[in-house]
Write the structure tokens for this entry.
Amino acid sequence: MTGRLAGRVAIITGAARGQGAAEAALFVAEGAQVVLGDVLTDQLHETAAAIGQHAHALRLDVTSADDWAAAVSFATRLGPLKVLVNNAGVHRLCPIEHETLDDFRRMIEINLFGAFLGMQAVRGPMAEAGGGSIINLSSSAGMTGYAYHAAYGSSKWALRGLTRTAAVEWGSLGIRVNSIHPGPIATDMLPPPAGGDPDRRFAAQPIGRAGTADEVAQLALFLASDDSSYQTGAEFVVDGGALAGPPPTYQWQPS
């Protein structure tokens, strides 16, 4: 590894498993002290222990302002807080006509309000540290409409707007704010295949497979590091080309 995050402290939410765990492992390997936050405390501690001594497990309910205050206080004792990855989120498929207000509200509370509270909590310490990078995990469902994604998609579309607004407001503080928009990623959040080849579902996209948590983590590392020092308010899609359009269904022949 190259030490691209040496001397920095990062908070990563939803870090017990999946994309958050992959990001935490990579950030530590690149020299950061990482606070792993999640409500899945048993799995969280196992993940942190497997990563090593620079991974610090801390229970963090992203909908709780008190939990955020505690996480930021803990992080700043480790060193300059330079990175926040708002990775925590929940996913659920449901037709609009079957949605309940309570379920819709819960999706917004975790996926959107959780990121909002985290951004508020780190703004002061990050500015005092001379700036930093906030990375919000949105989704390809925040770029286009998907059936049965009314609540989830709404939360991710809103996160795009929050990201861009914060980038405009906080740029003068040296705080960059960008969003990542994963497509299908092979984690526990991806619905299991009905049967047969698990990648058959993705044959209609240019790269005909699900992505990996490590592939998302590499993009998060780029945005956390100085390699992306001139990028803020930007949206980075990692979806195997799904949003670009389907591959051709016929073989071209010269006329």
User: Anything to note?
Assistant: The radius of gyration is 18 Å. The CA atoms of residues 33 and 54 lie 5 Å apart. Strands lie at 9-13, 33-38, 55-59, 81-86, 132-137, 175-182, 235-238.
